[in-house]
Protein: Fe2OG dioxygenase domain-containing protein
Organism: Panicum hallii var. hallii
Amino acid sequence: MENLLSSAASHKTLPDSFVFAPDQRPPASAADVALPVIDLARPRDEVRRAVLEAGKELGFFQVVNHGVPEQAVRDMEACCEEFFRLPAADKAAFYSEDADRPNRLFSSTTYGTGGERYWRDCLRLACPFPADATARDAWPDKPGRLRSAVEAFVAPARAVGMELLRLLCEGVGLRPDYFDGELSGGDVVVNVNHYPPCPDPERALGLPPHCDRNLITLLLQGGVPGLQVSYRGDWIRVQPVPGAFVVNFGHQLEIATNGLLRSVEHRATPNAAAPRTSVATFIMPTEDCLVAPAAELVGACNPPRYRAVTFREFMRVYKAVGARRESVEKAFRV
């Protein structure tokens, strides 16, 4: 099968199937715009204001002193990088193109309907909370430390996401536990994204512009730059901060806050010099959860902007229309 797993190292030129048209890969801005870095150890009122301001302005920010043990972060990053260095034969059994399979390895997914492919391999893991033996046994057993590293990482990473949601609730006037229960009760989905060195990174994309489908995302982006965020018509490069999580909002948070907090488009770019591995942690609703604008944020002067929708139905439409913001917005706006 022709995919990055078997062919990336052998190509000295970029295969045509990975070439995006110039208008689909505008260069990042040279403007000096940086994501805010928020110290979660600061006083709560200060952190709440910073999170809300960054969320409204950029939809993205980075957090440090977040409480996820440094060892858990290091082990997760190391095991994920080691997984992608395994021989192809050790990963082959986990490879699947079945998008409904909760735990799988896949590669160079087709972009939209144009046929272009991303320069990315992805290991996707479904992590019930709390994790159980059945869930752990469905994760890869190589490298040997991977399962324990995932389990030790996911619980505290989810806790950071839930604390950020509580801070956002306090900031916008919702009860602090508004997002507890079904709105955050689905499996925690972990995407380990691996971008091999690319022979012509100026004409390829690791991931095209997209908005996240979930509630809130926490990303360990590693030490190699590649994440870019849409901002005021430009793309800004996100510079890695050691040990930080990059945080952004998904469509479910935008619907629930009636557009007060927005899901912002972002993309990933490959490079020629070094591989890049990132770990994205997605906090998801349950499939049958009904997501709608919070009653507290709707009124005569602020009518509902989005229709109520189950997460299952949202995902059906999201997959059909694609992950671009404009398409999703059109599908769910009132």
Notes: The chain has one domain: 14-332.
